Amino acid sequence: MSDPKKFILLGATGSIGESTLKVLRKHPDKLFLLGASAHSQTEKLSDITNEFKVPLAHLTKKPKDSTSFDPSTRLSHGEDALASLASHPEAEFVVVAIVGAAGLRPTLAALEAGKDVVLANKESLVVGGKLVTETALRSGARIIPADSEHNAVFQCIADQPHRSVDSIILTASGGPFRDLTAEELKGVTLESALQHPNWSMGPKVTIDSATMANKGLELMEAHWLFGIPPSKLEVVIHPPSIIHAVVRFIDGCCLAQLSPPSMTFAMQNALLHPHRFPGVEPSLDFAQPLDLTFHPPPLDRFPCLRHAMDALKQGGSAPLVFNAANEVAVEAFRLNRIGFLQIPHIIEEVMNNIDHSQPNTLDELLSMDRNVRQLSHEYIRSSSFASS
Ligand code: NAD
Ligand code: MG
User: Which atom of ligand 1 is nearest to the CA of 13?
Assistant: First the structure.
C-alpha cells in the first residue's frame, strides 16, 4: 500500500474544512494533513492541528495567544506565509476552502508551484479565471472541482473529449425563499436567509444561495473549469438537491450525478480522485420515493442570478465586479446595514458605475477588486437605505 498523500487544507475551520476533515477521519491511511490554515479562529484551528498532529498551522491574523497549539506544530501568520504554505515543497496537493476572493492568491501560489488544487473556493475562478486556468496549464497542475455541481460535472465528463460535450446544466435548490412572492421577499430577515432547506454551509455561501448569486458564481466557475461558453451553460431549479448537475453530450444523451445533499460526497471524490472508496455517509435509498422534479429559475424574483448571467456574458472584469460588490453587500446584510433586496440593487449600481478595465496580473486583479469594494462601501454609505 502506498503512503498517505500529504496535503494542505486552507480554510480548515470552515464548513468545507469540516467536510474535508470527515473524509480524513474516514481515510487516515490515504491522506495526511501536512498543514492547515484559518483566518482568526485560533482555538478551532489548534483543535484540528492537535487532533490530526498537523506539522504546519497558519492564521492570517496573528493570534494574541498561541499556547493552545502543540509545540510540535509550527505556526505562521500573514498573507505571504499563506502563499508559502500553499506552495510547500512537501505538499502533494492543496485544498482551497477559503471563502471569498481571499482564496485567489493562495490558489495561484499552489498552481504556480505545480500543486494540484482541490478547489471549493469558486470566487478565485470568478475573479481570476483566466489567470488561474493559464497558470495551471503552464505548470501542469490540475484543478479538481470540489463544489458539488462542478464535481458532479467532473464525474459525468470523466475522460470524454471536450468536443463531445454539448452543454452543462447546473441544478439549484432555489434556497429558502424559492417560493416567496416579490412582495414577501421584501420582508425576509437575516435569520431566515441563514436557514438553507437542504445544505449546511458557511454563512456567505448560505446567503448567496438565498439570493441565488451562488448559482451565478457557479456558472462563471463552470465556464472556466470546463471551457464551456456561457450560451451552453444552464441553470434549473431542483428543490431536493439530489441531482447536482447534468451533462448533455452532442449525441443527445445526458449523464447526471446523484448523491444526498452533503459535501462529504463531492469532497471525498475530489480528495481521493481517481479512486473510489466507501463514503463517510449513507448513499441514496432508491426504495424511498425520490423527487426528481425540475423547473426554470425565477430570474424576475432573483435578480442576483440575472446580474451574474449578464456579467458572465459581458466577460472581462465584469465577473470580478459582480463578485466584489456581492461580497460587500452580503457583509452589509450580515451586519444588518441593508435589507435583503438591497443586495442585487448594490450589485447592479456598482456594475453600472465602475470603469471596467482589463486586469491581467494578480496585482491588477487585486487592485481592481479593492476599487470595486471601495465603491460598493461608498454606495452603501451614501444610499438612503443604509440604516446606520
Ligand atoms: P466558511 O465561512 O465556513 O469557512 C471559510 C474558511 O476560510 C474558514 O476557515 C476561515 O477561517 C477562512 N477564511 C475566511 N476569510 C479568510 C481570509 N481573508 N483569508 C484566509 N482565510 C480566510 O466557508 P465555507 O462555507 O466552507 O465555504 C468555503 C468556500 O467553499 C466558498 O468559496 C464557498 O462558496 C465554497 N463552497 C462551500 C460549500 C459548503 O457547503 N460550505 C459548498 C460548495 C462550495
Ligand atoms: Mg455548489
Answer: 9
Ranges of residues in the chain with a pLDDT under 70 are 1, 384-388
What angle, 0 to 180 degrees and rounded to 10, lies between the N-to-C axes of helices 318-334 and 362-382? 50
pTM listed for this prediction: 0.97
* CATH topology assigned to domain 315-383: Rna Polymerase Sigma Factor; Chain: A (1.10.1740)
Determine how many CB atoms are found less than 10 A away from the CB of residue 182.
10
Identify residue 269 by its one-letter amino acid code.
N
Residue written as cell 492568491? 105
* Beta-sheet strand order (sheet of 243-249): 233-237, 165-172, 243-249, 254-258
Residue 235 phi/psi, 5° resolution? -125, 135
Q: Are 95 and 9 in contact (CB under 8 A)?
A: yes
Domains of the chain, by residue range, sit at 5-146, 315-383
- Regarding the beta carbon of 144 and ligand 1, being less than 6 Å apart is answered no
198 lines ligand 1 (CB under 6 A): no
Dist CA 226 CA 350 (whole Å): 29
DSSP state for residue 143 in the 8-state scheme: E
Q: What is the CA radius of gyration of the chain?
A: 20
In short, whether 122's Cβ falls inside 6 Å of ligand 1 is yes
CATH number for the domain formed by residue range(s) 5-146 = 3.40.50.720
